[in-house]
Specification:
Length: about 500
């Protein structure tokens, strides 16, 4: 267990973890109340209205990418979070007051969701990147996983508490309680003093478009990241519309607010398990992401066929496990293998793809629930999971040359890094899913099929530097020309610099 929670040995991260956990509970309470208010108090079970609310809430993640990523890279993330968390607290207090006084209307919820989305566009990117400021590089992958565990632990508590509070005191008080919970994270931010932040290079006056383009160019040259982004987009757009899915399924089975909140908590049991399992792994592996999206497809299909509320609820444990494994591992892989110089912008792209698909998927899934029934939301989720799995396997087969061969009566796996199963593994230059140069493990070869170092490996997964991508020459030519410390890149204005080890 010590290995699972090793990032908590860092004082600043420990303070942040505690404050964020309390605030996350309030956030999940608010999310549950918001969707229930739209579905049952302000409309007559209109799933399309819930989808529209989600579209307004998550749309800004996509539209504000040129700004949110640049803010996370160029400004003090702690100060950015102090501002965004304060604004989120005021929004919750405002809507809570409207609901308690009985003055709230549907358009108020729409405006609140839009305001929440705009603030969260900056908050989410800076919050994700802020983790790298709180821990040493070799603890980053574990810290990302523990963040997910905190998020899902709060998800286990928040919706259930919200369901009870809605039934006892009303939905408005849930929003007001969430506003108070922000004091915990604001206090944590004020208590943090020491940041493990590497130099980000001199600040240059560049347009937002040019700053974003550096992140886009970086991702375009990283095919492994492109594949992850595509898989995350498919799942995030069509398989992660939980408010639509769970609220309509609760109504389908004739259940109320308490059972709706219970569904979210049951989903969180699997999500928490997935996050903790990810925290135990020494590093984020891409193959785990591919397997997880396939699991999402399988479990969603099984859930759609469940005949009762409790059998459906049981399948949500496994759905939460698969989705949490995918999100935690994908996030860890992106953070630990991205150059710190563009980490904020790459994370902004990642979050935009993950959340920005909601304005497309949520209204469509909501409309499908209205027209075809609640079970259709799960069939759509299954199709998205299988499509994402096909993308991952297709990349392994085409670009990584994954093959199953028969040798001396036994089946063996070969790939681009080890095309000859009888070859000496000391000569292997690539793993199944990434070149060893990307994983920053010179001289260390892992077993076939792995995409990250094992416990006890002498080197850890690290950031792939900008100059390694923007210089098209082979690695050995560059190494012969310049020392490993700080080599200039070929792209003007990108401010490339050396990126240290970024994960474990």
């Amino acid at each position: 267990m010590a290995g699972t929670f090793r990032s908590l040995s860092q004082r600043d991260y420990r303070i942040w973890f505690g404050g964020a956990f309390v605030s996350n509970i309030g956030a999940w309470m608010q999310s549950t109340a918001q969707n229930w208010v739209v579905l049952t108090e302000l409309t007559n079970h209109n799933a399309s209205a819930v989808g529209a609310t989600m579209a307004l809430q998550f749309g800004p993640q996509l539209l504000l990418v040129p700004f949110s990523g640049a803010v996370a890279d160029r400004f003090d993330r702690r100060k950015v979070l102090l501002i965004t968390q304060s604004l989120l607290m005021l929004l919750a207090a405002g809507l809570g007051t409207l609901l308690v006084t009985g003055a709230a209307e549907l358009w108020h919820l729409y405006c609140f969701a839009l305001g929440l989305g705009i603030v969260n566009a900056f908050d989410t990117t800076s919050r994700q990147a802020f983790v790298s400021d709180l821990v040493e590089p070799d603890l980053l992958s574990n810290a990302v996983a523990l963040n997910a565990a905190s998020f899902n632990s709060a998800r286990l508590i928040g919706p259930a508490v919200a369901g009870v509070l809605i039934a006892i005191v009303g939905s408005g008080w849930v929003f007001l309680i969430n506003a108070v919970s922000f004091l915990a994270v604001l206090g944590a931010l004020l208590a943090i003093h020491t940041l493990h932040r590497g130099p980000r290079g001199p600040v240059q006056r560049e347009s937002q478009l040019k700053q974003l383009s550096a992140g886009v160019r970086y991702v375009r040259r990283r095919h492994d990241l492109l594949v992850i982004f595509i898989m995350v987009f498919l799942v995030g757009t069509f398989a992660m519309n939980f408010p639509v899915m769970s609220s309509t399924m609760a109504v389908e089975f004739g259940r109320g607010a308490g059972d709706y909140g219970l569904l979210s908590s049951i989903l969180a049991i699997g999500s928490l398990a997935g996050a903790l399992l990810s925290a135990r792994r020494p590093a984020a592996r891409m193959r785990v992401v591919i397997i997880a999206v396939g699991g999402i497809g399988v479990v969603s299909l099984i859930a759609a066929l469940m005949p009762s509320f409790w059998t459906f609820a049981a399948t949500l444990i496994f759905l939460g496990l698969a989705i949490s494994t995918m999100l935690t591992t994908a996030n860890g892989f992106v953070q630990t293998t991205t150059d710190p110089a563009v980490r904020g912008r790459v994370l902004a792209l990642y979050m935009a793809i993950l959340m920005g698909g909601t304005p497309i998927g949520a209204p469509l899934v909501g409309a499908a629930a209205d027209a075809l029934g609640a079970h259709s939301t799960l069939y759509i989720s299954a199709a998205a999971g299988f499509a994402a799995f096909a993308v991952g396997i297709g990349w392994l087969l085409t670009e990584r040359d994954l093959r199953l061969r028969r040798l001396d009566g036994e089946w063996v796996v070969t790939h681009a890094g080890r095309p000859d199963p009888e070859a000496d593994r000391d000569e292997q230059l690539e793993t199944l899913t990434a070149p060893i140069s990307v994983l920053r493990r010179p001289g260390h070869v892992v077993s076939t099929g792995e995409s990250a170092p094992q416990d006890g490996s002498p080197a850890s997964t690290g950031a792939m530097r900008l100059e390694e991508l923007f210089d098209s020459r082979p690695d050995q030519d560059r190494d012969a020309e310049a020392p490993e410390s700080d080599r200039p890149g070929d792209e003007p204005g990108d401010n490339p610099r050396r990126g240290g080890s970024a994960g474990s």
